[in-house]
Design goal:
single chain; alpha+beta; globular
Length: 84
Amino acid sequence: MDKKVTVYTFNTCPFCIKAKNLLDNEGIEFDEIDITTDRGKLKELESKTGSSTVPQIFAGDKFIGGCDDLMELHKSGEFDQVLR
């Protein structure tokens, strides 16, 4: 069973779109939380993850990182292990 994947995004962010496209192409269902107008949520995520950029991607409670981190998981072959 796939882990619950959550992606925090801004609606015009090209890295968010790239990450969501990879997840879609791999058949990974995810919940998208658009925080474009909620800078408070971004500050909350920043204090939790140490990252102030989007996307911020979680598999269950584990913070995966951003788009580059997701792409690296895919390239390294660890994608399925971490996200499924």
